[in-house]
Specification:
12 strands; about 25% strand; about 250 residues; single chain; alpha+beta; 60s Ribosomal Protein L30, Chain: A
């Protein structure tokens, strides 16, 4: 598997054109069939104009409450550093709102990221005459009881998101009953590591030669979402008194 981060011009909030950025940045790149392209959520949000100027008139915590599906206040978080939220079935601080590389704006999470992933996929396939292509919209994410961030995929399009081992056997002949590989987050993590978190200016990555990917018109978020009552982490999630913005 080959992961390549793609350098681009500065992508400027509050609004910029992602499709033209892709064309500009891919001038000297020959895209192969069955490539997976990773695009950071931040540049998708700027493309959508999901940016709010930072000022004394904007209360960030109130903004987080409006953007989150569910939240708990800073008072319940160690050192009150963030609000903990659930958005689009993902546990993430501050509803994904970010200020880094944002030039004085709050960058919200993309609106309907699955539809955005489809639009990007359709554009690249048409522009570069490709039949099989995958898109992942990525973001950085913290892991409980671990230092540092890893990448996750908040949306995808163009390939089946899971590799299913259920019904197969391990090397000693034991039948596997539950194991599925989350392809979306696995690839997003490798791409986010390559793209970096600071001033690298590489918000797009290309992944080639990924084995065992089933390409097609897959875009259903429910394929990745675990039923909340079947989730082994349900006791932890349900033990928190989540609030919802009225």
């Amino acid at each position: 598997m080959i992961v390549k981060a793609i350098a681009t011009r500065k992508f400027l909030p509050p609004k910029d054109d992602l499709l033209s950025l892709i064309k500009e940045s891919f001038l000297n790149i020959k895209l192969k069939e069955e490539t997976i392209i990773i695009v950071t959520s931040k540049i998708v949000s700027i493309w959508q104009g999901r940016c709010i100027k930072i000022s004394d008139k904007v209360n960030k915590d109130e903004l987080v409450k409006r953007e989150a599906d569910f939240y708990i206040s800073r008072d319940q978080v160690p050192n009150k550093v963030v609000m903990l939220t659930i958005k689009d079935n993902i546990l993430i601080p501050m509803a994904g709102i970010d200020e880094s590389n944002a030039n004085g704006y709050y960058i919200l999470w993309p609106k309907d990221p699955f539809e955005a992933a489809k639009e990007i996929n359709d554009f690249i396939k048409k522009t570069y005459k490709l039949k099989n292509l995958g898109i992942i919209i990525s973001d950085s994410h913290t892991t409980p009881q671990r230092n540092g961030i890893v990448g996750i995929g908040i949306a995808y399009h163009g390939f089946y998101p899971l590799r299913d081992y259920r019904g197969t056997k391990d090397i000693f002949g034991r039948a596997l009953k539950m194991t599925q590989t989350n392809i979306v987050d696995s690839l997003a993590s490798s791409a986010v590591f390559e793209m970096g978190e600071g001033a690298e200016q590489t918000p797009i990555a290309i992944i080639e030669d990924v084995k065992d990917i089933k390409f097609g018109n897959f875009n259903e978020r429910n394929l990745l979402i675990m039923d909340k009552d079947a989730d082994i982490y349900a006791p932890l999630i349900k033990s928190i008194k989540w609030k919802k913005y009225r």
